[in-house]
Design brief:
Radius of gyration: 24 Å
Number of domains: 2
Number of helices: 3
Bound molecules: zinc ion
Strand content: 5-15%
Order of helices and strands: HEEEEHH
Length: about 110
Amino acid sequence: MAQDPVKKAADLLRQGATMLGDACPQCGSPLFKLKSGEVVCPEHGRVLVVKSEREELKVKEEVIFSQVEDKLIQGLSKVSSKLEESPEDPEMLTQIIRYLEAIERLKRNR
Ligand SMILES: [Zn+2]
């Protein structure tokens, strides 16, 4: 006979597992993440959390967006230090405005 899931869940927590917001697709019990990174259901054991392609894409998009944002901010900071050297250069302002626009658009897309 299977172990009482409530007792099993308590055991998992004692072992340092954390309770996830996701539920087991088979029984609906809350899922736990072990220290090893494995996701388990107290009743069914190891569960593979299958994410939809769309969700996966969303995660990738988020990663790319934040990389682009980092680069834009780096670029903006380079241009702004150049602006100190040549504050009269209209080209500098144009570049800054372009960076700011790009950052804003990126934020609007998230
Ligand atoms: Zn389950």
